[in-house]
Design goal:
Elements lengths: L2 H49 L1 H9 L6 H5 L2 H22 L5 H30 L6 H12 L9 H4 L6
Helix pairs in contact: 2-4, 4-5, 4-6, 5-6
């Protein structure tokens, strides 16, 4: 064998090793991101389920486009509205920053986001007016709007019906 040929083979193998290493690194980074998303989603869902379900019931009992004075005038309702609003604000930011993907957030909390936004919107807009800032509720609104854009199934149909044939 000629030395030039051996050098070419070694260079080719070195190049393939670098390319293989880069592909492996990309796959590992994607897997790490997927694992991180799963961990964040799990933690958020656990926290929500243990601390916020009663607050959500209070918000659900409000009329659509509830009068901000009705919410602010009752300490229990105001507490529940603030709790739901701040948690959905956090969820919106987690989705935006890709810690939780939109599809997962929508399947898990899409109903809560849509219903809560429908009921709390005037109250949040009143907060914005008082603060002279569009920042209160910004990520909650962003999330509600993204979920409205992606409607993948009828809002009146639950997962038990929509995915009845899943896995078959």
């Amino acid at each position: 064998m000629e030395l030039g040929f051996v050098v070419q083979v070694v260079q080719l193998l070195a190049g393939l090793t670098v390319i293989g290493g880069a592909v492996f690194a990309v796959v590992q980074v994607r897997e790490l991101k997927r694992q991180r998303q799963g961990a964040v989603a799990f933690t958020f869902i656990q926290q929500w389920n243990s601390e916020r379900s009663d607050d959500l019931d209070v918000v659900y009992a409000l009329p659509d486009a509830a009068d901000p004075r009705q919410i602010d005038g009752d300490a229990a309702i105001r507490h529940a509205a603030n709790s739901v609003y701040m948690n959905l604000e956090q969820l919106g930011l987690l989705v935006h920053d890709e810690f939780i993907d939109l599809a997962t957030a929508d399947e898990w909390a899409g109903g809560a986001v849509r219903v809560s936004w429908r009921k709390l919107r005037p109250w949040i807009e009143a907060k914005r007016d008082r603060a002279k800032s569009q920042r209160p509720g910004e990520w909650f609104q962003w999330l509600a709007e993204r979920m409205a854009e992606r409607r993948t199934r009828d809002e009146t149909v639950g997962a038990h019906t929509a995915y009845r044939n899943w896995g078959r």
